[in-house]
Specification:
42% strand, alpha+beta, six-stranded antiparallel beta sheet
């Protein structure tokens, strides 16, 4: 088990930045196997201005993105320099609970299958003990230069 990562450690691992960085802290990291991230959902999130002004709900697709970013931190621990993580696909996504300002979102991602440059991941986002979102994610790592292979 590796040491937890703060926001600066996450920024070193993946290229995402505000307002699209959707994981605040890594609480647990078992390299190559499992990662647990945390997203503090605040009323100041930019997406709440339009989703929805009178009833703020975090868009489910952004929760899935938070899971993918958490999985990317896990994958990038083993990737070489000049590599970037990309979303390759999503299956079996289920949205079970609304996520609202004030919630703490726990983002747990486990490796299901690994191949060269790609991983099948299972993600579960929870608020407390309640499952908010679950999805199977295909993540790939590719060269950062367009057109490079």
């Amino acid at each position: 088990m590796s040491d937890p990562l703060d926001l600066q450690g996450i920024k070193k691992a993946i290229p995402h930045r505000y307002p699209f960085l959707l994981v605040d802290r890594i609480l647990e990291l078992d390299p190559g196997e499992r990662i647990l991230g945390l997203k503090n959902v605040t009323a100041g999130e930019p997406f709440f201005a339009g989703h929805f002004p009178d009833f703020p709900v975090m868009p489910g697709v952004l929760i899935v993105e938070g899971l993918a970013q958490t999985g990317a931190v896990l994958m990038m621990r083993e990737a070489g320099p000049g590599q970037l993580p990309f979303f390759g696909g999503i299956d079996k996504a289920r949205f079970r609970r609304q996520v609202v300002p004030g919630d703490q979102l726990l983002l747990e991602v486990t490796v299901q299958q690994r191949r060269s440059g790609a991983c099948r991941l299972r993600g579960v986002a929870r608020v407390g003990q309640d499952v908010a979102v679950q999805a199977d994610i295909l993540a790939v790592v590719r060269p950062a230069s367009p057109g490079a292979s």
